[in-house]
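REVIEWER CHECKLIST
Item 1: Sequence provided? yes
Item 2: Single chain? yes
Item 3: Sequence as submitted:
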Amino acid sequence: MTKPILYGADYSVYVRIARMTLEEKGVAYELFPLDIFAAEGIPAWYLEHHPFGRIPAFEHDGFRLFETNAIARYVDEAFDGPALQPADPRGRARMGQMTGMLDAYGYRAMVWDVAVERLEKAEPDESLIAGSLRQAETVLKVLSSLKPPGPWLLGDQVTLADLHAAPIIGYFLKVAEGQKLLAQFSDIQGWYTRIAARPSFARTEKIG
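Item 4: Structure as written out by the authors:
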């Protein structure tokens, strides 16, 4: 089989989720740089890979995918390496619940409306940040309530839930408000320390 190609940029949270999945499985892959915020816009050819012009997109032996959850599940099931999904239906359902919650309620609030707003705006919208911190608190509270005993979000096994949450929360922690809020959830803070120590996290960190 040929080496899979992941299209995207190293600044992207969702590209990092896909990359961490490939790293955890030990899959050699090519990261094809694609900046969707480039001044010249999204290249026309890329819309054949992702009709909505988002990142990442993925290709393996002529098989194309977009949407990070689909890419991650395919990588887990198509390649050798440690299983990244629970074997039981309830565990897989809980994993899907966590990743779905992060997509629907966590990503926008934590990444864009807190971290990016604080870091990149000359005059941040403080009311937007405050409201998004309340949403982020709910997300962390629910994540904490769903987490069973054990080092990882689903217990003793690293799963796609961990790989999905780590880049989102990692970006949130770029700002003081994120660090302060996470400190209120000791179990999730401890989990983050463990996932951030994994080689897959270090190897996918954007430099500069």
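Item 5: Key structural point noted by reviewer: The chain has a mean pLDDT of 97.
Item 6: Recommendation: ____
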